[in-house]
Write a structure and sequence with these properties.
mainly alpha, 5-stranded mixed beta sheet
Length: about 500
Amino acid sequence: MGFLYFRLYKEVELKKHRAPIVAFAAFLGAQFAAAEPAEDAQAAFDQGEYNASVTHVVEAIKENGWKGELHVLHIRALMAQGKYKDAQVATEEALKKVNGGVRIRLAAEEVFRFNGDNKRADLMLAEINQLAGSRGWAYQNAPSLVALGRTALKLGGDPKLVLDNLYKAAREEDAEYVGIPLAIGELALAKHDYALAGRTFQLALKKHPKNADLHYGAARAFAPSDLEVTLGHLGAALEINPSHAPSRLLLANSLIDQEAYAEAEEQLAKVIEVNPHHAEAWAYRSIIAHLSEKKKREQEARAIALAHWKDNPMIDYLIGRKLSQRYRFEEGAQHQRKALSFKPDFQPARIQLAQDLLRLGQEEEGWKLAEAVREADGYDVATFNLVKLRDTLAKYDTVRNERFVLRMAPHEAAVYGARALRLLERAHRTLTEKYGLKLEKPTVVEIFDKQKDFGVRTFGMPENPGYLGVCFGCVITANSPATQMPGPANWEAVLWHE
């Protein structure tokens, strides 16, 4: 399994042959004749006309069934419509016609997952790895190198080696191939490296301005920091392809943040109109139902999301992450545990669970999980920041009593630490009496003298979108006055508010 992790690919010199003019002319004529339906199929797919794409690509396959990219397009067009059984039939036919096709096998992996056959899906990845080891010379073109890189990541390969040994080699082979920036950008997003993702997608858009996937990638890269830019890219993607499901889902995600549930449902309905079985669209419907206190509808939507791939960890990860973003950390953590019961090494769920636990005050388990994720994946930016923050917190002064655990930078604790604890005690006494509350465990209060540390602890990333403090229930985080110079807010008012 480890072959793809470290192999260095070398260029292969291909022998050039001269052909008689007549034979060459006949070959060229056949190529032009066959190219028309293939081009029509790709154009229809790019515009979201998936039925038309299938019609054209089937015609193209009749003429050139040996071309793996045609079969991949056929499979993708069927999958986009939720025609999973038809996609499996097309996949089986493709595997017979194209010997050693790594791109077909990579597409087949998803097809088999959504047809409930994880064993066959795993076999596809294993076969790609085996083919790369025995026939590496055959996969030197850019699309194949990208497919090998994506496979290596699925098998747990080192992201840096994939970037250096596969994606870089693909770029040297064909710098114009749009699949390269898509793969690099998606890898960066998966590791929370939004800066790299943003640069990658924006540079690629200069060459491919009409690519909906690139606009969607750019939208994701700017989603944590610039909503206006995000919406601009989503608008561009949907103008190119009105049926682009990922863009509509990201738009629905943003609308849920604004509690515009009806508008979010409209976006989801458009996705489901194209693909009635779209797993993530139904996951979002489950989220909206949960937030609307519609328990039965929530469970029904989640069941539909898992109907075709019953142990898909992405579904509960997505639901749980969104609930946590709405400050429902207990429910969010439960969904991450469900995701991990399907796939124990699913890194996104492990990272999110670590953050949820820390926000719930379950620090021992949360920090232990964060360390484990960091050891397994040294590239993830969010986890790196979180573990680094732990080192910072270890240097803080900690003041404890029966009701509070107060952490502050030593130089600030010396100035107003005791006063902060007295204010917290007064707030506890006043508010618990007023509302009849009985808090069962101490409240953790962390006051940060650097905004980036507050951002990492509170939002998972160094950016601070204008917050002075945040209450997670039994955990409160706050910026110290030093982070707001030259016009600091009243720190006592901030603490009392939280």
